[in-house]
Structure of Glycosyl hydrolase family 18 protein:
Amino acid sequence: MRSLRAALTAAVTTAASVGLALSATGSAQAATPLPAHVFAPYFEAWTGESPAALAAQSGAKHLTMAFLQTASKGSCTPYWNGDTGMPIAASTFGSDIKTIQAGGGDVIPSFGGYTADTTGTEIADSCTDVQQIAAAYEKVITTYDISRLDMDIEVDSLDNTAGIDRRNKAIKLVQDWAAANGRTVQFSYTLPTTTQGLADNGKALLRNAVSNGTRFDVVNLMTFDYYDNQSHDMAKDTQTAAQGLVNTLTQLYPSKTSAQLWNMVGVTEMPGVDDFGPAETFTLANAATVYNWAVSKGINTLSFWALQRDNGGCPGGAAADNCSGIQQNTWDFSHTFEPFTGGGSTQPGNDFSLSLGSASGTVTAGQSATAAVKTAVTSGSAQTVNLSVSGAPAGVTASVSPSSVTAGGSATLTLATTSAAASGTYTVTVTGTSASGSHSATYALTITGGSGNQCTGAAWSKSAVYTGGQTVSYKGHNWKAKWWTTGEEPGTTGEWGVWQDLGAC
């Protein structure tokens, strides 16, 4: 689980709708509807970061903002994160949301989450007045001029039948108010799932909505944290969970077409290692598979928990709110899912990632070190990746076998040293090159007990820019650049080339 995920008569309905309209705090104009297919990762609203800034950096134009909850059990007033210093007001995220909207995006405020759902501060659990719950929903809609609200209902809230009924009745009131005021407002339910679809309490929640005449536009499955002690192909599990949901929706809406039912489906992944542990790891290759599947099925929403986790800041670590626990580049998952927003028909370009099983090693001169070279498909289809290695010092032979793999495959880096190698630490770079571009990873090789002399100059780098007079070390020699250069390997440019050989070191 996430660490913070946090029957009325027509006359009464009409009166409530009028009351809501009179209490509106924002513009009466209708917000811009969301695209038919949207990528909207969760943004952790308690971190103090700017949602507009992270949206711009990641390329995610739409965000699901988590979470809204009451400050204490029994209250009917929601705040961001239940923090009374973060009211529903333009002063809290208002300028950020306007910036996102001006850039063609939008936000989806989310009520609930794991903390709220386990402490009685989810608003429909906390507040027993349906009209006040509806008024709170309406205030968020008008304050931020948004067109969808999300209800993140899990754990205790899923079994609170009174809260479920109040929530669905309040949503119905807001839907009637929106229709009367010419607004398009959608509602999504974010629910935990098994690998085969919703559990019985999730299905009961949806049946209650239907019995109340409440429309839910999207059912967003949390396709992670299964906690079933099984091995998992997280991409495959997403697909089977979604198919189970569609089977449930078919029973609730027998008149809808298959395309309409699939367009009610959303999935939220957790990049990298989820709360259960490494057995439930959603990889970049999984993300590419899920993207292609989502496009083919025409689902409504792709998301993940959370934007602040989309980086490789803690490879090999456990689930955390600020990193994925796997080796990746910052925003890899965002870039894979980005093209989904809009028509949902754009296939991403082919790309891959490259990483090493270990980032460093120590050997005694005369011995060898090895490391696994791992590749994965990050978008599009698998392609051929040619592998090379550079930066090995004198007395060290570096090789990668095989020298070419299909993205998703692995190879082995071998660094064989001789007794003539100089003691010291050297950076060796493994580079994978394909038609889409190249990616690299580095390995720090420490040699002890060597008899050679270590080059003191900085190691030559293929990607660095050098100007006249700068010196580097490469393959046991020092070299001096005669003029500006980049990418030209010392020792290959000839006597009259850019690099002057200053001799062995």
About this structure: Residues 457-505 form a domain with the Seminal Fluid Protein  PDC-109 (Domain B) fold (CATH 2.10.10.20). Confidence is low (pLDDT under 50) at residues 1-28.
